[in-house]
Amino acid sequence: MLLFVLAVAAPVGAAAEEAWYVRAQGGGNYADPESITGLLGSTFNRTSEFKSGYLAGAAVGYDFNGFRIEGEFLYRENDVEALIGGTGVVSGDRSIRTVTANFIYDFYKTEIAPDRFLGVYAGFGLGTAQVSLNGVTQGGTLLIDSDDSVFAYQAIFGVSHTLTPRLTANVDYRYLTTVGPEFVTAANESVESGVEDHSILFGLTWHFGPEPGMKSQPSAPAPVPAVTRPAERRVAEGSPAPAPRTTQTFLVFFDWDQTAVRPDAAQILAEAAAVAKQGVATVIQLTGHADRSGSRGYNQGLSERRAAAVKNFLVGQGVAANQIVTLGRGEDDPLVATPDNVREPRNRRVEIQLP
Questions:
Q1: Dihedral pair phi/psi, residue 336, rounded to 5°
Q2: What is the DSSP string of 264-288?
Q3: What pLDDT, on the 0 to 100 scale, is given for residue 245?
Q4: Rounded distance, CA 117 to CA 122, Å?
Q5: According to a count of CB atoms within 10 Å of the terminal CB, is the N or C end of the chain lower?
């Protein structure tokens, strides 16, 4: 119980960009056969085999930007299928209630669709388990109806997938083992057994932060249209001066690791679309950019997807698709120069140039 309290309380002083989450989960549980042997001179000796069972529970945790600490409760139950070493029909079940502090590292994430991510994580849990043999009988005779609380630990490996901006689905494999629990038989004999369980756990996680598996960043400067001065052109002496020509450049900004058009950006893009439809521009150039918080290859693709998202928005506003050219500059050509792996809001942008 102490570990559970520490897991929940530890993140209280974390930075604002980190976020709480809660998870509901359930699945199937397979229990390895376990020997039940007598202690203190007892001659009791059985090997228990279990039917496939189930587990269910919940967790509350805190995400430290990819490293998570959570407190978790799980309930497992498996019916006893056989007791090798004795005769007669067997009945009863084994249940396990675990309270653990889990330490999980999200070590891989990839975008599989616009704003849809697949993540892979691994970790371990430490805590306590109340192991119960409930009404175990053989040949109509009660053998054990007892429980014990012991130290437990588990290995965790899983994958996650975003469903909505706040909801994530996950599938875990869990391996649970404990210090050997001791029970008292109906004949008042002390016996010892073991626990080795394998589980497949399906969960739904609700994130209280801005996005699942991603953290909010300081707000980018309000994106306002910027008009660039036209390039100076030389005119032959005596020739009529050409009509002045201006190029309008609009900037829109994005949240970290996102391609979704924000509401403030949508207002700017609506204005850009209106200007494009009123003019006679033959080519509208969209240039996407990313900050340096990811790999160069990932940021290149992210910048291209941002440019494509802006193109789709402009087409939805009535701008002809064949007028629009998109390209991505990745983490090159930043507005603000930063070291590698730094998240800079002003570098997550698309520039719209209207000739």
A1: -125, 120
A2: HHHHHHHHHHHHHHHS--S-EEEEE
A3: 52
A4: 17
A5: N
User: Any idea what DSSP says for residue 346?
Assistant: G
* Single-letter amino acid code for the residue at 152: A
State both tokens at 19. Answer: 């976020």
- Four-residue CA torsion sign, 81, 86, 90, 96: negative
The residues near 291 (Cβ < 8 Å, ≥ 6 apart) are 256, 299, 331, 334, 338, 342, 343, 344, 345, 347, 348
The residues with which 169 forms a beta bridge, in sequence order, are 161, 204
- CA 4 – CA 61 distance, rounded (Å): 10
**Domain over 2-207 is classified CATH 2.40.160.20:** yes
User: Following DSSP, what letter does each residue of 218-232 receive, concatenated?
Assistant: PPPPP---EEEPPPP
Q: How far apart are CA 34 and CA 174, in angstroms?
A: 18
Question: Domain 226-354 is classified in which CATH homologous superfamily?
Answer: OmpA-like domain (3.30.1330.60)
pLDDT at site 170: 96
Q: Which amino acid is at 64?
A: F
Q: Are 152 and 4 a contacting pair, CB within 8 Å?
A: no
Tokens matching residue 258: 């996102």
Share of residues in the chain with pLDDT > 90 (%) = 63
Under 8 Å between Cβ of 121 and 87: no
User: What pLDDT score was predicted for residue 214?
Assistant: 44
Q: How far apart are CA 255 and CA 17, in angstroms?
A: 13
**What H or E segment, with its residue span, contains residue 311?**
helix 296-316
**CATH 3.30.1330.60 region(s) of the chain?**
226-354
The helix/strand/coil state of 136 is strand
pLDDT of residue 66: 84
Report helix, strand or coil for 129: strand
Is the whole-model pTM more than 0.70? no
Q: What is the pLDDT of residue 116?
A: 76
Pairing of strands 196-207, 167-178: antiparallel
Residues of the chain with pLDDT under 50: 1-17, 211-237, 239
C-alpha pair distances (Å), 338 with each of 207, 290, 293, 294, 341: 29, 12, 10, 13, 8
